[in-house]
Amino acid sequence: MQKVNVTVAGGYQPAVVNLQQGVPAQITFTRTSDAGCLDVVHSTDFGFETDLPLNQPQTVTIDTTKAGEFGFSCGMDMFHGKVVIA
């Protein structure tokens, strides 16, 4: 299982998550700042939308069966990150 932590504070750190194709993966988002519109993270590519309560880690499972670049963003699509599966 691949596990990646992403800190959400004025954007996503890291903004690019690299995963190995075919290995199950989870990304845990933790919002550490209440500024901006980052209280939701969603991805149409992966089909999730998750509320991000302040300082409460939220984990999503990522389908790694297909290689490529897939996006995620805040609720207002102002802040973006991507998952690269290779």
Question: If you had to describe this structure to a student in words, what would you say it looks like?
Answer:
The protein is mainly beta and 86 residues long. It has one domain: Immunoglobulin-like (Sandwich). The chain is 0% helix and 53% strand. The chain is built from no helices and nine strands. Strands 3-9-8-5-6 form a five-stranded mixed β-sheet, with no helix packed on it. The chain has a four-stranded mixed β-sheet with strand order 2-1-4-7, with no helix packed on it.
Produce the secondary structure layout.
Elements: E1 2-8, E2 12-13, E3 16-19, E4 25-31, E5 40-43, E6 48-51, E7 58-62, E8 68-74, E9 80-85
Parallel strand pairs: 1-4, 3-9
Antiparallel strand pairs: 1-2, 4-7, 5-6, 5-8, 8-9
What characteristics describe this protein?
about 0% helix, 4-stranded mixed beta sheet, about 90 residues, 5-stranded mixed beta sheet, mainly beta
Question: Total number of β-strand segments?
Answer: 9
- What does the radius of gyration come to? 12 Å
What best-fitting shape do the alpha-carbon axes yield?
A: globular
**What class, by secondary structure content?**
mainly beta
CATH architecture: Sandwich
CATH superfamily: Cupredoxins -  blue copper proteins
Helix content: under 10%
At the first level of CATH, what is the class? Mainly Beta
Strand order of the largest sheet: 3-9-8-5-6
| CATH-derived topology | Immunoglobulin-like
Q: What are the segments in which pLDDT stays under 50 over at least 5 consecutive residues? A: none
Question: What's the number of helices?
Answer: 0
Q: How many domain regions?
A: 1
Spell the H/E element sequence: EEEEEEEEE
Strand content: over 45%
Mean model confidence by pLDDT: 96
